[in-house]
Amino acid sequence: MCSAIADPARTENDGTSLLDRIVTEPVRVVETRADREIALFGSEHRAIAGAVPRRRAEFGTVRWCARAALDELGIAAVPILPGERGAPIWPDGVVGAMTHCTGYRAAALARASDVAALGVDAEPNEPLPAGVLGIVASAEEAEALATLPRRGIAWDRVLFSAKESVYKAWFPLARRWLGFEDAVVAVHPDGCFTAAVDPRLAVGVSPDRYDGRWFAGSELVVTAVTVPT
Ligand SMILES: CC(C)(COP(=O)(O)OP(=O)(O)OC[C@H]1O[C@@H](n2cnc3c(N)ncnc32)[C@H](O)[C@@H]1OP(=O)(O)O)[C@@H](O)C(=O)NCCC(=O)NCCS
To answer: Which residues are in coiled coils (predicted)?
Structure first.
C-alpha cells in the first residue's frame, strides 16, 4: 500500500498544481491550463502536419510543458517525437509521460537514474460515457468502485485514468500492448491505487505490480504511476 501525499478530497484552489499533489521529487512536473506558443522543431512539425488545430494545440502545448520540465532537469530542448505506438521518444537518460485533456496539459519527467518509468493521465471528473466502464473494467473492479464513498468523485473515471497511467508507464518498459482486461486496478479512497498486471505479460524489466496515486479536483481527475529504478 502506498501512502497518499495529499488529502485527495482537498480543494484544488490552494495554488498547488494538480499533479504536484501526487508526484514528488525527483519527478519534475509542468502543467498548464492555457495553450502556449511554442517553436516546434522541424521534425515535430512534420509529425503533426495535417492535424486539426485542436490536436496541434495540445501537441505543442504539452511539449512546451515537457521542455520546461527538461529545463528543470538541466537538459536542453530537443524534439519530442511520437515513437512506437505513440510513446514519446525522450532524450537519453530521461523518462517521462505526457497528458492532455480539455483545459489541461501536463508533462512529468525524471532522470532515468532516479526513476524507471512514469505514467500520468488527466481526465474530466465526470462519469464515463454509458457502456465504457464495461469495456475498461471487470465486473469485480466495477463492484469495488460502487463501494467507495461518493464525495463528488467520478470513481469510474479515476479507474480509467489509473489504467491509462499504468499503460504509459508499462509501454516504454515492456514495448507491448496491455489491454484494459490485462491489469486489475484497485482504487483506494485515500488517494492511492494499485495495479496488478497479468504476470504472463510482464516482460523484461516491466514489473507486474504498480503503485499509483490519484487526485480529484472539481473539474479534473489526475493519476500518476512512478516505477522505481
Ligand atoms: C495511449 C493512451 C494511453 C493515451 O491516453 P489518452 O487518455 O487517450 O490521452 P492523453 O492525452 O492522456 O495522453 C496522450 C499522450 O500519451 C502519450 N502516449 C501515447 N502512446 C503512448 C504509449 N504507447 N506509451 C506511453 N505514452 C504514450 C503521448 O505522449 C501522448 O501525447 P502526444 O501524442 O501529444 O505525444 C490511450 O489512448 C490508449 O491507447 N489506451 C489504451 C491502452 C490502455 O490504456 N490500456 C490499459 C492497460 S491497464
So the answer is: none
